[in-house]
Amino acid sequence: MNFFENLFSLSGKKALVTGGASGIGHMAATAMVHAGAHVMIVSRRGTECDEAARVLNELDAPGSAEGFAGDVGSESGVVKLAAEVARRTDKLHILFNNAGLSWGERIESFPYHAWARVMNVNVAGLFHLTRELLPLLDKAASDADPARIVNLGSVMGTQPIAEGAYSYSASKAAVHHLTRILAHEFAARNITVNAFAPGPFQSRMTAFATGTEEKAAKVGARVPLSRIGSPDDIAGATLYLCSRAGSYITGAILPIDGGQSAQHGMNLFRD
To answer: Is residue 266 part of a domain?
Structure first.
């Protein structure tokens, strides 16, 4: 194994990616398979997970994938998913908490129940699944090679912006704060906890704004680097945090946003 393979390889690692059949979760799962990991892809849509795994297994890549249904939107769903993961593996090196949903509406009509639904999946489900899988993560963790947790946050949890997605933005800010809390608490267990804070990427959730090349270009024009994110952007960040290269990083909220986290509209002394 050469220097770069030794630094970024995930050979022999077992990973779970929630919401991994599409969007950012699928981008991360693809990167892990290319790096040699065996990736379990789960979402509420089990058939889509099966298909995503089939496509990944046809790649010329050293890793592999399997897909099955799993729901993090309820307590019973989380418990059932954790039990299924434990049935399939005795240790878990990487947990990628990607599953999430959003709700957008004018503040005058934003429904009360939308808060509970979004928070249940984006925050409560993430927290409880992580807790349920701690025994498997502990078994994979070591001083030299910690187990890894990556949570999916958002630039909307970093910047004061909602655009109607009030519960989504609040939930992602909660994910960021919870990431730091768990990073501190899990350090003694040799488990790192970090989060992505992505800007705009093409996904099922953002299809209304990025579903065509024309729409994607319009959104990208508002980003400092003048484009939306690409699968390679997620792949690079995933392999960094989940491989030997990122073994000393914990509690980080990694902005993958083309500069949006540093963007502002202030001009103090210039016209």
So the answer is: no
DSSP code string of 89-142: -S--SEEEE---------GGG--HHHHHHHHIIIIIIHHHHHHHTHHHHHHH--
**Which residue range(s) make up the domain with 189?**
3-257
- The tally of domains found in the chain comes to 1
Q: Is 264 contained in some domain?
A: no
In a domain, 206, yes or no: yes
Q: Among residues 1, 32, 63, 11, which one has the least CA distance to residue 239?
A: 32
- Residue-wise pLDDT for 180-229, tens only, equals 999 999 999 999 999 999 998 887 677 676 777 888 888 888 898 989 88
3-state secondary structure of 147: strand
Percentage above 90 pLDDT, the chain: 82
> What CATH number corresponds to the domain at position 213?
3.40.50.720
Contact 84, 66 (CB under 8 A): no
- DSSP designation for 14: E
Q: Which residue in 166, 168, 240, 248 is the catalytic one?
A: 168
What was the pLDDT predicted at 142? 97
Establish if 268 belongs to a structural domain. Answer: no
Q: How far apart are CA 268 and CA 209, in angstroms?
A: 32
The amino acid sitting at 90 is D
Check residue 268 and give its pLDDT. Answer: 67
Cα separation, 51 vs 67, whole angstroms: 8
Annotated catalytic, 168?
A: yes
Bridge partners (DSSP) listed for residue 86 = none
- Look at the alpha carbons of 85, 129, 147, 54 in this order and tell me if their dihedral is positive or negative: positive
